[in-house]
From TrEMBL, chain A:
Occurrences of domain Aspartate/ornithine carbamoyltransferase carbamoyl-P binding (ranges): 6-145
Organism per entry: Alkaliphilus serpentinus
Name of this chain's protein: Aspartate carbamoyltransferase
Pathway assignment: Pyrimidine metabolism; UMP biosynthesis via de novo pathway; (S)-dihydroorotate from bicarbonate: step 2/3
Catalytic activity reported: carbamoyl phosphate + L-aspartate = N-carbamoyl-L-aspartate + phosphate + H(+)
Gene name tied to this protein: pyrB
From TrEMBL, chain B:
Domain Aspartate carbamoyltransferase regulatory subunit C-terminal: 95-139
NCBIfam families referenced in this protein's UniProt entry, alphabetically: PRK00893.1-3 (NF002063)
Protein name in UniProt: Aspartate carbamoyltransferase regulatory subunit
One Gene Ontology term from the biological process aspect of the record: pyrimidine nucleotide biosynthetic process
Keywords: Metal-binding, Pyrimidine biosynthesis, Transferase, Zinc
Entry GO CC: aspartate carbamoyltransferase complex
PANTHER family with a match to the protein in the record: ASPARTATE CARBAMOYLTRANSFERASE REGULATORY CHAIN
Protein origin, superkingdom: Bacteria
SUPFAM superfamilies: Aspartate carbamoyltransferase, Regulatory-chain, C-terminal domain, Aspartate carbamoyltransferase, Regulatory-chain, N-terminal domain
Pfam families reported in the protein's UniProt record: PyrI (PF01948), PyrI_C (PF02748)
One GO MF term attached to the UniProt entry: transferase activity
Aspartate carbamoyltransferase regulatory subunit N-terminal domain: residues covered: 2-90
Species: Alkaliphilus serpentinus
């Protein structure tokens, strides 16, 4: 696998084989972190977060620090020259001299693709608006691989905001490339997946989709339940958000008919779509999912940096 | 009856659906040309009943891609020495850039001048294009 110098903007940028190799490496790093504690010594990660983030930014920082590298960047566009009106292109033209690898989160869809056109170092999309979030997808895939051993022949349900949920879009797009995957898409009518994505999944990859509005109806037949938050920040008006925000709440009682080995995943942050009483259920894997995200980001960054002798 | 002479050399855009000629005139920025241009409206047509025609004196480097998006019935004649040298069929273009904007208000192309979307035709029977930045579909309308 030679991904040295490549960008990761969209999960389709990598072949299935490349994605699986990153996941395998992430699992090795998880099992034996000490072995990799200095593989990025002398390397600098630049974090360009134009939109708030807790997990993604800190997960990236933790990943680089765990490999012996260092981190610089900003976590609030208001404290950078963006506030003065600097273009993305100009920011990148400087930042790629300051850092060896960049991660960018931006509220505008397509901003990381634009940034990658000006970057001489690998640039990773850390989430762009309601569009894509490929490293959350890597986090989801490593979790599925860890618990299910193989990413194939699974019925995966997505529940919540499927219209604006970038984590959903990336994972749907990627999972539809794996064999034997089918989807149950549970959302209010107003928050169904974008047409362009449905078109890609059904017509390009020929994957079966069931669309539903009830969470309980299909719970007994699914292997992975991917819950998502209704995102206040993606709505243009408060009224629409209030109407939909409590559409789905997964509680312990609702899990009684679910498979015993079903995985409950969530990209986090959670608000109220998963009751706290679910946290102790052995099927709830969302906190471990967030932990595994650090290791898959370690695998990703070391691979894009072309670190030798890690596989 | 109104008579307009032919052109010695140039482009004739024929079989334009009646009423669309002025829009095409504007879309191709023909008002900015310094050479003679004629827009004929509501001309009798065996095929269409009524049609519009645009005649442009001299062959100029005009991007005619947009025509395929407006009306697939349009024909283009390239004229040299008072004769039609070439007839071109109009096709709906596979790739388009610079003709229209992405409809997605959250797309980076709506706020950053460096980002010019390239649109790719989606084979779904409608004239819809996928934005290269945000992937949203935009339906082209004149």
């Amino acid at each position: 696998m030679n991904l040295k110098g490549r960008h990761l903007i969209d999960p389709n940028d990598f072949t299935l084989e490349e994605l699986q190799q990153i996941i395998e490496l992430g699992l090795k790093m998880y099992e034996n972190p000490e072995k990799y504690s200095e593989v990025c010594k002398g390397k600098i990660l630049g974090t360009l977060f134009y939109e708030p983030s807790t997990r993604t930014r800190l997960s990236f920082e933790s990943a680089m620090l765990r490999m012996g590298g260092t981190v610089l960047g900003f976590s609030d566009a208001n404290t950078s020259s963006v506030k003065k009106g600097e273009s993305i292109a100009d920011t990148i033209r400087c930042m790629d001299d300051y850092a060896d690898i960049l991660v960018m989160r931006h509220p505008r869809e397509g901003a990381p693709l634009l940034a990658s056109q000006f970057s001489t170092v690998p640039l990773i999309n850390g989430g762009d608006g309601g569009h894509q979030h490929p490293t959350q997808t890597l986090t989801d895939l490593i979790t599925i691989k860890y618990y299910k051993k193989d990413i194939k022949n699974l019925k995966v349900a997505f529940c919540g905001d499927l219209l604006f949920g970038r984590t959903v879009h990336s994972l749907l797009k990627t999972l539809s490339r794996f064999p034997g995957i089918s989807f149950v898409l549970i959302s209010p009518e107003e928050l169904r997946i974008p047409y362009h994505l449905r078109d890609e999944i059904m017509n390009k990859h020929n994957v079966e989709i069931i669309e539903a509005t009830s969470l309980e109806e299909h719970l007994c037949e699914i292997d992975i339940l991917y819950m998502t938050r209704i995102q206040k920040e993606r709505f243009f008006n408060e009224e629409d958000y209030v109407k939909l925000k409590d559409s789905y709440i997964l509680s312990k009682g609702k899990l009684k008919d679910a498979k015993e080995d079903m995985l409950i995943l969530h990209p986090l942050p959670r608000v109220n779509e998963i009751s706290y009483d679910v946290d102790d259920d052995p099927r709830a894997k969302y906190f471990h999912q967030a932990a595994l995200g650090v290791y898959v980001r370690m695998a990703l960054m070391s691979t894009l940096l072309g670190v030798k002798g890690i596989c | 009856m109104l008579k307009v002479t032919g052109i010695e050399k140039g482009i004739v855009i024929d079989h334009i659906t009646s009423g669309q000629g002025l829009k095409i005139f504007e879309k191709l920025n023909l008002h900015k040309l310094s050479t003679p241009v004629v827009l004929l409206m509501n001309v009798s047509s065996n095929k269409l009943g009524k049609k519009d025609i645009i005649k442009i004196q001299d062959y100029l480097d005009i991007d005619l891609t947009v025509l395929g998006l407006i009306d697939p019935n349009i024909t283009i004649n390239i004229v040299e020495n008072n004769e039609i040298k070439e007839k071109r069929d109009i096709e709906i273009p596979e790739k388009v850039s610079g003709l229209f904007k992405c409809k997605n208000p959250r797309c980076i192309t709506s706020v950053d001048d460096y980002a010019e979307a390239e649109f790719t035709l989606v084979p779904n029977g409608k004239i819809q294009y996928r934005c290269s930045y945000c992937e949203e579909l935009t339906e082209y309308k004149l």
